[in-house]
Design brief:
Helix content of chain B: 10-25%
Oligomer: heterodimer
Structural class of chain B: alpha+beta
Shape of chain B: flat
Largest sheet of chain B: 3 strands, antiparallel
Number of strands of chain B: 3
CATH class of chain B: Alpha Beta
Strand content of chain B: 25-35%
Order of helices and strands of chain A: HHHHHHHEEEE
CATH topology of chain A: Ferritin
Distance between the termini of chain A: 52 Å
Strand content of chain A: under 5%
CATH topology of chain B: Ubiquitin-like (UB roll)
Largest sheet of chain A: 2 strands, antiparallel
Order of helices and strands of chain B: HEEHE
Strand order of the largest sheet of chain A: 1-2
Shape of chain A: globular
Structural class of chain A: mainly alpha
Radius of gyration of chain B: 19 Å
Number of helices of chain A: 7
Number of domains of chain B: 1
CATH superfamily of chain A: Ferritin, core subunit, four-helix bundle
Number of strands of chain A: 4
Number of helices of chain B: 2
C-alpha cells in the first residue's frame, strides 16, 4: 500500500515546535487567568489562554499527516506526547506577571512573525491556519505591547523585574528562528512553505518589537544599521547551546 | 521598621503602581437596526489595553460594533 502521508522532516519539525510552543504558552497563561494584577487583565489572560490552546489544537492533528509520525503515533496527541519542543523558558511556571508580559510580547510575537510568513504557504493546512492565527494574534500583540509600556513606565523595581524577564527570554526567542544557514529552515524557504529565511524572519521580528523597546529605552543587545535600515544583534547568539531538534536552548552549565 | 532617609522620590508599591484609574464605558450593538447601548465598563489607563479588555470581557455576543468612551468625558445634562 502506498502511503499518502507527507514526507517532510523539516516541516514536521517546525510544526511540532509551533504546536508545542502554543500549548506551553497556553498552559502558562492559564495559571494567570486568576492571578493577574487586575480583573480586566485576568479575563484577557483567560481569553488569550483559550486562543493559544486553540492554536495548538489546530496544529497537532497536522503531525499525523507526516510519515515522520508513523513510528511514534503517540507523539501527535498532546495528551500522550512526551516530546516537548517548546522554549526552555516555558519549562517552568512564570515567576511573576512580568514573565507573562515578556512571553506575550517576545515569544508570541516571534511565533506570529513565522505565521505571517506562512500566510501564502505552499502547504495548504499551514496557510489556512496561519491566516486565522495572525488575525487572532493582533489582540495579543496589543496586550503585550500595552503591558510592556505600562510596567516600564512605572519605573523602579517594577521596571527592573520586567527588564529581567525580557532579558531571560531574549536570546532563546531570537534563536528560535534558527541559525541563518539552518538547512531545514532554508529547505522550507526553498519549497515555498515560508516566505522568509531565518535571518529575514529574525529581522522582521526585530522590526516588530524594537520600536516599543527603543521608545521605552529598554536595553537589549541590538543596534539599528542605518545602511540596511534593519535592526541587527550586536552580540553573537548562543548557538553552542542550541538544540536543533527541539528548537530550544539547552540550559547554561552552572 | 524604620525608613531610610533618601532624596529620591519614593517608588510606589507594586500594587499601588499598577492600579488603574481610568474608567471606560463600553457600548455595543448586535444588529444594524439597533442603537449602541451600554454593556458595562472596564478600567485601564492605556486606551489600547482598554480595547483589549472590552473585547475579552464582553465577548458574549458577535457584536457588529463596539466603542469605548472615557467616563470622565461624560457631560451631565440632567442630573439624577
Amino acid at each position: 500500500m502506498t502511503s499518502t502521508r507527507v514526507d517532510n522532516a523539516a516541516l514536521f519539525a517546525v510544526l511540532s515546535s509551533l504546536a508545542d510552543n502554543k500549548q506551553a504558552i497556553g498552559r502558562r497563561y492559564a495559571y494567570w487567568s486568576n492571578g493577574a494584577p487586575a480583573l480586566e487583565a485576568a479575563v484577557a489572560a483567560a481569553a488569550m489562554t483559550q486562543d493559544e490552546l486553540g492554536h495548538a489544537r489546530t496544529l497537532y492533528p497536522l503531525l499525523g499527516d507526516f510519515t515522520q509520525a508513523e513510528q511514534e503515533p503517540q507523539q501527535i496527541e498532546p495528551m500522550t506526547r512526551t516530546l516537548h519542543y517548546h522554549l526552555t523558558f516555558l519549562d517552568h511556571d512564570f515567576q511573576g506577571w512580568s514573565d507573562f508580559v515578556a512571553t506575550n510580547f517576545l515569544v508570541d510575537n516571534a511565533l506570529t512573525t513565522f505565521f505571517e510568513a506562512a500566510q501564502d504557504s505552499s502547504y495548504e493546512p499551514l496557510r489556512l491556519r496561519s491566516r486565522k492565527i495572525v488575525q487572532e494574534e493582533r489582540v495579543h500583540a496589543i496586550h503585550g505591547e500595552g503591558w510592556v509600556r505600562r510596567l516600564a513606565k512605572v519605573g523602579g523595581a517594577v521596571r527592573a523585574v520586567l527588564v529581567s524577564s525580557l532579558n531571560r527570554l531574549w536570546d532563546e526567542t531570537l534563536c528560535w528562528f534558527g541559525p541563518d544557514d539552518d538547512p531545514a529552515m532554508q529547505q522550507l524557504y526553498q519549497d515555498g512553505v515560508i516566505a522568509a529565511t531565518p535571518a529575514e524572519l529574525r529581522s522582521r521580528y526585530l522590526d516588530k518589537i524594537m520600536p516599543t523597546l527603543n521608545s521605552l529605552e529598554i536595553p537589549v543587545p541590538v543596534a539599528f544599521d542605518a545602511a540596511t535600515k534593519r535592526w541587527q544583534p550586536t552580540e553573537p547568539l548562543p548557538w553552542s547551546r542550541w538544540d536543533v531538534v527541539g528548537k530550544r536552548l539547552r540550559a547554561e552549565a552552572s | 521598621m524604620s525608613n531610610t532617609a533618601t532624596s529620591s522620590p519614593p517608588t510606589p508599591q507594586r500594587c499601588e503602581a499598577l492600579n488603574e484609574s481610568t474608567v471606560w464605558l463600553v457600548y455595543a450593538r448586535k444588529t444594524y437596526d439597533e442603537p449602541l447601548y451600554e454593556v458595562g465598563n472596564v478600567m485601564a489607563d492605556d486606551v489600547e489595553l482598554a480595547k483589549v479588555y472590552a473585547r475579552s470581557i464582553f465577548d458574549e455576543f458577535n457584536w457588529i460594533e463596539m466603542v469605548i468612551v472615557p467616563r470622565e468625558t461624560i457631560v451631565t445634562v440632567i442630573a439624577s
